[in-house]
Amino acid sequence: MHKPEKYGDDLSFRKALLNVTSNKSDVVTYEIGASGIGLRSIKPVFKDGQFIAIAELGLYLNKSFLEDIPNEQNFVQLYDEDGKKLEKPIVVTENEDLTKEISSEDLRKFIENEDYYFLNNGFLYNVIHMKDVEGNVVGLLISKTSLKEEVALQKKRNLMTTFLMSLVIVVIVVVLFMILRSINKQVKSINLTLEKVASGDLTVKLHGTSNEIGAIANTLNETLRKLQALFKDFQMSFVDINKAVSNYSMVTNQVEDVVN
Hints:
It holds the Pfam family HAMP. By secondary structure, the protein is of the alpha+beta class. The protein has helices at residues 4-7, 15-23, 63-66, 98-101, 104-112, 147-198, 212-259, and strands at 27-33, 36-47, 50-60, 72-79, 85-93, 117-120, 123-131, 137-146.
């Protein structure tokens, strides 16, 4: 655990650390430090169910960080490291000219309203509020975007969307064609089988599938099986009748011979 009495580094002003210590839960927040605005991820550490430490990972949003972000960006720091509001905000910018393009009135509106934006010389200026663990706005990320580049990017997105939609439609059409062809093939097979049955051939059999047509084929196969069994029973009965008639004829002949 942190021991300021031992190491001399009092961190009681760190609201995020106090929040994690109190609530024993993860915190991801912006925070003002000695080096400016930082994005911090803080997690409580437990051992055997006991809270024993805090693990922290931080990233300072400095000028080198701005260079890796698309478009031109400004960081505006509104508080000092002691949590006091600055009379004059500290601006960290990739392009020094950008600060000249944003008036004090625009800056005030950016601070008060995250939805505020303005257009100037073909560029869009908008803002993202950086809030600390208590929800206070401690900094701003002001972005400058070329409308011309944004329109070109939107056209690319539209083309990509159109291409993907066309591809999906083609795939759907192909799948439907294959399904319809399969159904048509199965229906033709059923019709051919029924024609054979109508002509007296009860030995035919349909090849079933897992779809609805296959269920019909399976039902017809079961019907044909029962008809075949019934026909065999009829044949056996007919044979028995023939035998009985033959036996009766033999007995009749024998009786006639005796009488004569």
